[in-house]
Design goal:
Length: 205
């Protein structure tokens, strides 16, 4: 038991230090040896836990998607089955807040540093679980007549694109250069964009 705990502790130290290094630099500059130095471990220690740098990044991305899923679910504390339009918009805000608060995770989750995410079953499962929160929310809103009947997957992809694009532009500071688009209060600017999006998804009168 002690050896297992030590192994888990070392693995966790590697992941924590890798995340810290990503906040300071780029994915390309990260290496298992750099992680070992930052964690105060021997140069070969990370290789006993991760078969490659990509495998370590995949585990970090998996952890990121799990936290991301919890963030999305927090918009409707009673459960996705109780989703309303207000909580749906709040979920979008939670999306952007996660991107702002966890840039290293976000970069791994939606970047290209992991060549084939499907090669890592835990990562693929975590990503699908996060996306299913959005998908299920749309299906709930369709059942109660807030969103028009239509295949839910394309609608979910559209909402995701709006949230992702807004997050990327906000992180890059682009909105501050366009008068009247967002201003200091990005949440009201985001809400305005969600209102436009939802207006287009409402059932026909």
């Amino acid at each position: 038991m002690k050896d297992a705990q030590g192994t888990d502790s070392t693995r966790q130290r590697c992941l924590d230090q890798a995340l810290n290094l990503l906040l300071q630099g780029s994915v390309e500059s990260l290496s298992l040896r750099a992680v070992a130095r930052a964690a105060g471990l021997s140069a070969t220690a990370p290789y006993r836990h991760f078969e490659s740098k990509e495998a370590m990044l995949a585990e970090l991305a998996t952890r990121g998607f799990r936290e991301f899923e919890m963030a999305l679910r927090s918009a409707s504390p009673g459960g996705v089955h109780l989703m309303t339009l207000d909580s749906f918009c709040e979920m979008g805000i939670c999306y952007v807040q996660f991107a702002q608060a966890q840039p290293a995770y976000y970069q791994l989750m939606f970047g290209t540093s992991i060549a084939d995410p499907s090669a890592y079953p835990a990562l693929d499962e975590a990503a699908q679980a996060a996306f299913s929160v959005l998908l299920q929310s749309i299906e709930v809103l369709q059942r109660v007549g807030e969103i028009r009947p239509a295949p839910a997957h394309p609608i979910a992809a559209h909402v995701w694109s709006v949230c992702h694009g807004f997050s990327a532009l906000l992180a890059a500071g682009k909105f501050s250069k366009v008068d009247g688009l967002v201003g200091e209060d990005w949440q009201s600017g985001f809400q305005a964009q969600m209102d436009i999006l939802l207006d287009g998804l409402r059932p026909a009168p």
